Amino acid sequence: MVTTPLSGWRVGVTADRRSDQQVEVLRRRGAEVVVGSTMRTLDLSDDPRLLEASRALVADPPATLVLQTGMGLTMWLEAMDAAGVGGDLRRTLAGVEVLARGPKATSAARRAELEVAWSAPDELYAQVVEHVASTGGRGRVALQLDGTDEEALVAPLAATCGEVVVVPVYRWAWPDDVGPAGVLVDAVCDGGLDAVTFTTRQAAVHLVEIAESRGRRDELLSALDGARVVPVSVGPVCTAAMAALGMTGIVEPERARLVAMVDALADEASRRSAAS
Q1: Which of the listed CATH numbers 1.20.140.10, 3.40.50.10090, 1.20.1440.230, 3.40.50.10190 matches domain 10-39+174-275?
Q2: What pLDDT was estimated at residue 39?
């Protein structure tokens, strides 16, 4: 007999990318799912800044490339292939030190035949910054942005580097239709959900911002305490942002993967069921 550990649980999903896959995994474990995407990804492949930055890196190669996300590297190279400078860019990047924030960026780099010299053990950008500082800083550094605040990412790296060239591949924004996310906010505040999943830190930030726009920020954060509603994180980067926002009782898997995240929630549900 197939067990469904999340039977009776109503779970909110904030994801944009791969939300269908997450919903399927949750439903297979017995959950009822409410989808309220809190974000959308704006593709900057046609942004003149991306082409300008790429040409600048080919003309004057950096000492180091910092990769934030696998998706970002893949989108960047594909965009430059379409623009006719992909070959030159790939040859340039093959000759520089590559630092990755985590395994997804590392995997994407390897697929692009780039050798990763070092990867942050906990997938934290702060660890990348610390590594650069502790190993003597750098001269010219290329930084692939991850969709969040550009200035906040550049400033700590620039403190120990001669120059930071930003590579803007995509940006995160509120969804075009905020309605489903608003329904999710109300469901959390009114006791209509048992858990909410977050697969990016920006999804958590946007949920709180949307709640604030509805005058329910404090209610939302009070409810996301692990007792009334369980906040579920995909990994340490997301967890750090959620905790900084004021969420508590966060459930996080040992490995930052979507299925592992759902399994961690299922384990929590089973633990609670056994204790009741």
Answers
A1: 3.40.50.10090
A2: 93
